[in-house]
Amino acid sequence: MSHIIQIGLFGYGVVGQGVYNILQKELSNRVKIQKIVVKDLTKDRGEASPLISFAKEDILDNPEIDLVIEVISDAEEAFSLVAEALQKGKKVITANKKMLADHLQELLHTVENSQGTLLYEASTCGSIPVIQTIDKHFAYQPITSIRGILNGSSNYILSKLNQGGISYAQALAEAQQLGFAEADPKLDVGGYDSLNKLVILNYHAFGAIGKSEEILHFGIQHISEQDIAWAKNLGYKIKLIAQSSLQPNGELISWVLPSLVHSESELYTIENEYNAVQIEGLYTDSQLLKGKGAGSLPTAASIVADVLAVLRQEPYINSAYSGKPKTQADASLAVYVREESPSSPLILKDERFIDKRSRIGRIQIKEVLRRKEELAEQGLFIAQIPEALLASQAVHKEDCYQLV
Fold first, then answer.
1. Measured between alpha carbons, how far is 394 from 378 in angstroms, rounded to an integer?
2. Pairing of strands 67-70, 216-217
3. CB 31 within 8 A of CB 69
4. Domain residue ranges in the chain
């Protein structure tokens, strides 16, 4: 009989329960969950109750446990658990994108200096196997850009707004009711979740280990029906897009912004809680990966896929990793801006006004990054637009700003 992998599971929320159920149903002949560590011992854990503990040592100090799965919400606590497990030479699977974005370089260093293994497919796009695809399919092909919808909660809200007849507050409440958005939705609608995922993808696609604060990002929390109508009348939908492009000099340009997406784009039809990643390869042109990016079972399924990778002894390849972070290049972006106040401190180049509070023009990424905190207090909505719109006569108010 082959060796049964012993698993220790940190966390038993909706994702943890999904992992437990899938493993019991699909891999019970190859793996065994030996211990589940939680914080609240008063909850009824059903058939998993005999496995429940509140002591992390029951997993970390147990030499019989080969594999640790971490699915808790606290990023710093998750880092402590993952780092200790790796130091002890255990194989670790995590879905905590904020923890990875904040501590990726430290964790990779720990892996290099221990017998540990780190896998985290579920951290980026829910059910989409984007990390494995990048590491294997693009192992010997340079990636020139990644562009995608990386947050299912925001995409669900924007889908409802683009359909019309519903307010932002109503769409957010609906997303929360369905379990796509948290009670505190800031990480999703503020663009932070997409930002953390882009940091992770930048490592695999470009070998860049950067910090989230080095990447320009704005969310959708200040979007209005006016913004939706303006884009719609020009033939666009507004989507929250994360994008990184590698420049010929090796520098990387990255941002996370609401963006005008044309009907000819493959991302135009990505709706509700679905995610999608568009990968541009030097030899294969554009490829699109699509799947559910929110929900307990899609995330759990990606974690179980990593369990299979452990069973097959297939760690990540990370062929793009150079050992040194690439420099974040400066660049200008064409944007649409709507302010609560007509006296916004944001200066645009090649500026054209749509009305007293709405305009288009160009921003410098590093300049906006430098003033990010100041601008965040202004309650402005900012969206990337195609360069062609800056010169188009169609953006005049009388032609396209017809509110519905």
1. 28
2. unpaired
3. no
4. 5-120, 131-293+326-400
Q: Are 155 and 272 in contact (CB under 8 A)?
A: yes
Q: Hey, what CATH topology would domain 131-293+326-400 get?
A: Dihydrodipicolinate Reductase; domain 2 (3.30.360)
Please identify every stretch of the chain with a pLDDT value under 70, giving residue numbers as ranges: 1-2, 294, 319, 321-325, 342-344, 394, 396-404
Among the options 197, 232, 239, 290, which is catalytic? 197
Strand ranges (DSSP E) for 25-139? 31-37, 52-53, 67-70, 91-94, 117-119
Query: If you classify domain 5-120 with CATH, what class do you get?
Result: alpha beta
pTM listed for this prediction? 0.93
> Per-residue pLDDT tens for 144-177?
999 999 999 999 999 999 999 999 999 999 998 8
Rounded to whole angstroms, the Cα distance separating 21 from 30 reads 14
88 counts as catalytic: no
Q: Work out the angle at residue 279's Cα, subtended by the Cα atoms of residues 310 and 311, and round it to the nearest 5 degrees.
A: 5
Tokens 């965040």 identify what position?
Answer: 376
213 and 368 in contact (C-beta within 8 Å)? no
Phi, psi of 345 (to 5 degrees): -80, 0
* Residue 146 burial (CB count, 10 A): 24
Q: Token pair of 220, please?
A: 């959708």
Cβ pair 153, 197 in contact under 8 A:
no
Q: Measured between alpha carbons, how far is residue 158 from residues 26, 46, 240, 241, 273 in Å?
A: 35, 37, 8, 12, 10
Name all contacts of 358-362 with Cβ < 8 Å and 24+ positions apart. 358/226, 358/230, 358/401, 360/334, 360/335, 360/336, 360/385, 360/389, 360/390, 360/395, 361/334, 361/335, 361/337, 361/390, 362/332, 362/333, 362/334, 362/335, 362/390
